[in-house]
Amino acid sequence: MKNKIIILLLAILTAQVSFGQVKTYKGRMFPYYIDFENTSKSSRITESIGSGARYTDEGILLTDDTKNTISGFYFNDLIIKKNYIFEFEFEYAAFGGTPANGEYGEGLTMFLFDKDANFNLGSGGTGLGYVYNNGSTKQAGLSGAYLGIGFDNSGDFKLRGTSSSTKREGVYNVPFKHDSSFITFRGGQHKNDRYKGYPVLYSRSTDGWMNKSDVIEAKLNSTTGDYETDYASGVGNVRTDYGQYIRYNGIRMSVYPEDSGNEGWSISASLRDFGDLYYTIGSIRIRNNTKTRDENGSVYNFESLAPEAMRLGFTATTGQATQKHMIRGFGVQLNYTPETIDKVITLCLAENDNTEGVTLKDPFKGAVFYTGTWGDMAQGDTFRHIDLDSILLEDEEGRPVDYVREDYDYGNFSLLSYLFSFR
Description:
Elements: E1 2-8, E2 32-34, E3 45-48, E4 54-56, E5 59-63, E6 70-75, E7 80-81, E8 86-95, E9 107-114, E10 133-134, E11 138-139, E12 145-152, E13 161-162, E14 167-168, E15 182-186, E16 189-190, E17 193-197, E18 200-205, E19 217-220, E20 227-230, E21 249-257, E22 264-272, E23 278-287, E24 289-293, E25 299-303, E26 309-317, E27 324-334, E28 343-349, E29 357-361, E30 369-371, E31 378-380, E32 403-410, E33 413-421
Antiparallel strand pairs: 1-28, 2-27, 3-6, 4-5, 5-27, 6-26, 7-26, 8-21, 8-27, 9-12, 9-26, 10-11, 12-15, 13-14, 15-18, 16-17, 18-19, 19-20, 21-22, 22-23, 24-25, 29-33, 30-31, 32-33
């Protein structure tokens, strides 16, 4: 006679708003992390690399001291669904380079785009590889774009372009106290038009206000298409060049879907400087349908693609002014994931026992599942709020466990019985 211990790790992989878990694409996806501190390309990214870019033991250098270049990539093994409640963090450095007219440039963008769209970056220079440039030389915006967060040294990424060479939507006629070093959130393309849309949802100077009359930030009014201005405290600087050392800013963002993602997202963001101090960037609400103004200043009804699932990536550009842009330490985690309890089954088997399975009743007893909207997350029970079709069960080695499920429903009471196979 011998004892055989079976440990059933009830591995619930990801979370969404209505239920405690959803199916994944390729094994366990979250938490997701990659440090990029390697001199060779990672197989986990798909790239579009320009002159001067390279892989280093400090991170991915997207632009070097090279004029008019653009580089970008996305994570090919990461999918963000529109109903996820998640947080992501990354570190970037913006340093070195050669100034033009006293400023370095241009900047970098973190972006989300439709997972089914072909990977095509947006315009270079002040477009930061995200927004379009519909001027004399037409350059489309990022294909399938939904959201772009630009860290812009020159401040031009936020502006409406009205010249013959640069025409695009953006902030116009707002008397910002400062002209450079801005963090700007832009929306996606208008329907399937890569030459329209990408409206500025929110833009703020990293410099703080001196008095309440100083305009530091602008936020899109979704009903008028105009911008509401305000003052705010400082959050450090987009550029991280402080002498001979490479220093990094850390960015942390929390994302919550509104109405299960059908109406957009709410995002809160903060910046951590090299002294490990966190500063609030701001909170915004993304609307899939809103009013905004086009490159000529005319109000229209903006409609985004609102994709079911998205990919995430980065791009950086230079113009006549240059700057080195480096990315490292990127990670994503889901909030409100279920809290499960591992189940241990001890069997007493003879040496020649050919038993191939065991029945376990109520394997999720004692687990906690979350339900409701993000603003009022309540702990759900195991019977009314669990999506049983999306469960993945694993053994102690991380291998999927074969099982057959039987459900019994007695009014408000349910009994779950699982027949597990093992060898």
